[in-house]
Amino acid sequence: MKNIKLKKVLTAGLAVVLLTFSMIGCANTQALASTEFPNIEETAEAELSSEESGYETLFEQDKILDIYVEVTDEDWESMLSDPLAEEYKSASVTVDGVKVENVGFRTKGNLTLRSVANSDSDRYSFRIKLDKYVEDQSLLGLDEFVLNNMYSDASYMREYLSYEALREIGADVPLTTFANIYINGELYGFYLCVEAPDDSFVERNFEDSTGNLYKQEQGSTLQYEESSEYEKSELKLGEDETKTDLKAFIKTLNEMPSGEKGNIEEVLDVDSALKYIAANTVLGNYDSYSGNMAQNYYLYGQDGKFTVIPWDYNMSIAGFGGGGSQTTIPIDEPVLGVNIDNLPLIKNLLAVEEYKEKYHGYIEELMTYLNGFEERVDNLAELIRPYVEADPTKFYTMEQFEAAITYSETQETSMSNIPQAASTEVQNERNDQQMPPNGEGMQAPPDFPEGFQNGDRPERPEGNVNGDRPERGEGMQGGPGGGMMGSSGSIINFIRERIENITAQLAGELPTTGNTTMTQGNRGVKANN
Fold first, then answer.
1. What is the extent of the structural domain holding 70?
2. Is the pTM for the entire model greater than 0.70?
3. Does residue 464 sit within a domain?
């Protein structure tokens, strides 16, 4: 495990030197400032104050960052010509006036990456790893972050508000902030900057930073399998290559006596799991452990005891399938598209009455937070609207942005929140995976869409040479050849309907268990058995 504290001390020392030089009028200080990034020469004092309190200052609530990325034309062209390779390139990055050289920069994503790559848009999400090429290098102590492209989110708010809600109930979640992204001096888009679960995240959230961090890939149901190596659990940090502690946790979870705790508290921070499940339930986040993909979470183990770390909420709050019956899913069987028997983290924990009561308590805390949801959305919209309007690569029109944050009495929930170019692919993938065969296991990952066999990218549109982007209409919103068009469901509608439904469930007016149906177009799909 890297020594994060040492990194912070070294970075702080550098900031002090720079500040001292500026105070005595050293001519070399001016040479450090780049004319491409006018904020740099004004931030020596800010660098020092940021370091004193850590990189958390970069993620102040409702702050807009400026993030500048410099990458060679050759590497940028290579990234755009084969985004599915997710190959790191060396770049420099400047965040809030603080510049770091030789960092790792690449595209990121799964379904969203493939969908954007198959369109005429180059608005990818990115991952920036500051210590990829220089050991222990960081940005004010931060070693990795991602830039999310707001794919399928005309409101620009789903992920930001979801993490905010999780923080309200005390969950260990990444820090987030909105950011204007500039690539080689030009405004590229208005993104969400998210702290990545890595060394600095672990150091910030846990006293013991010597544990093992696992990223749970698609299909991480946590069902126990004798002799399994649990390939879907990728060891990101730590030294337990044999996954001994992870296997012990999964075995203990699956061996819980029906309705009893067993030894689960020895291997799991149960509250972290209940908070994660509660948030997914209330916010309708089924691109998660609670859905048929069983993905988008991390597990951090310290001395054999694991904490659940939520991750990736761009499909929450009406994002997964557009809402519909998600607002009526029973809170005590809070799964979509999969048999609850295949998800022991939910089934076994909620079968324990004490845990179910705690889980209901977290749901009530989230409902309290959501009582002010519409006012929060209004305030956030006032903050980000000018940046959304100026976003040169946005997937949606301003009309769609406004519709996504406004209550509509006539709204019909649908798949309309997905950008048009990807809606068919997403629809087919979800239809194919709604119910595991015979109610058992998980479906295999979907095939790549046409043109993506073996990870190859289809031919780029004519005109995209030397890293140039193809000509397209304003903001890339549809039109002939636009390919990223579609209206968006209202996050206000979803939250109103979900609050009303959960309130009735908690009051005993509606059942908290039972079958649900996810309606997609004219096709009803039974979600639970």
1. 4-203
2. yes
3. no
